[in-house]
What does this fold into?
Amino acid sequence: MKLGKKFTLLFSALVMAGAVLTACSSSGNNGTNAANGGESPAPQASGQPAGEDKTPIKVNWFIAMDWYKRDWNPEVNLMDKKLFEELGVEINFTSGSPEKLSAMIATGDIPDLITLESNTPQRGVLEKSGYVLPMDELLPKYAPDLNVPETVQSWFRTSDNHYYGLPNYFYAPEQMKPDNFFPTHNTMRARDDLMKKLSIDASAFETKEGTLEALRKVRDAKLKYNGFDVVPGYFFYDHLVQFFGAKREDAQGNYVDSYREPESLETFKFLNQLYREGLMPQDALTLTRPQVQEKVNAGGVFMYTNWLVKWQALGTADPNAFYVPVGPIKGDEAKPFHFTPSTVSGWTMTMVGKSTKHEARIAKMIQYLSQDEMSLEMTYGPKGVAWDYDANGHVKFTEQWKKDYDADAESANLKYVGFDWLVNWLPIQAAFPVPETTHDKWEAETEKYFSKYSYNTMAFEAIKPDGGTDLAAIDVKIADYRTSMGAKMVLAKSPEEVERIFNSMVEQERKLGYDQLFQYWNQKFIETKKKLGIEFAWPDNQK
It folds into this structure.
């Protein structure tokens, strides 16, 4: 098995645990590092604080994501073993939907630890419930050596002047170093071998017409690969509307709903043209990310957007079949590119239940897991066993690690990979292994290529209404309405029909409570900028 497949299987665990979202949320996974050999100082070493109580205890940890399944198994997993040996802590992981967490809150049955996506409504409910401990009281008392970035504290501080949890994948500016950057899921890639076969130049994808002409070549060639018809492309609204330059803040510093911008209509018209010309299949509206990835890995997709869709299995089966970055596509106005990165303010939030009998031990465990080097160990396995640093401070895997992944990658994941609920991506990014295979090199190139357009979006990440409120209900209704109308626009019979649907949405959204929701968005946006000490958040306004 090639090293690239090891990387992909390793990071698929992070994507499953993290994406997104991405996230995306984040997510999902926060990207890989495009660094290729520059000096990177080694992160701080992990190690157990002196005088630690190692008396065995069991901690119940609930993950409010029903897809998450992980058994605590120190007999197999080296990170579980290390945690138990150094801290004496055994973890009982359970998981369920956010609705299950709501039921737990209603009964007051809160476990020792809770992890949930940081933008879910249940977070605000927990912060106001009295069922979770304030971190600003717990950590100074029992883990005084843990240095929580001031940005993290202020970002999550509530109206009672406390903050109740710690995030993962938070890009604290005071921790950012020159080799750190904001990775984005907004990417576009095309098959290099098929471009050469059809004499398509990568520069074609810099314009809408060039992209259409290239995709028409693919469609008309009726390509097959390993028995599969090659689909010209899979494109998604969230990516293209950013390509075309829809702004998110006006010149006066007010929030702008990019969905209502002219570039949004331009995006739907382009998606509709792709569909009507047979350049994008109808299932682009319904397939999940794993299903698109399955098609990509089978060799049935010429090009696609979305960083989280991986292609390693295809590259492993056919070394000539690899994807390269193309675009971004300029919109009609050729506006500058500004791409939303993986969530800057973190993906999940981990909280400590007030009824826990292990306050001190849990605080010490949080301190232990929050060390920079522990983020690397949770990702790759124990230092010295799975990896060590090379001369430039990048991760270099041991021969045993390589041997284990060559023998059985899935089993190796179970052996080495920990859990990432308190992982900080910044030290991982700075120490990322130097790419070796064709796949890894192009993954790094793609990330570097598109992340140069990403920007700090923290001010835009704090406008979601609190859960359980009327505004939250309006937010959900409008989001659902837009999803259904978006599908109708993509499948419309003409560009005129797209425009008619788009324009008709304004009145219907007003009936659903849009004006009230937008007022809240703008108010929160302006308040958040003041909190961050900035006048403008949109890059064009900062010039």
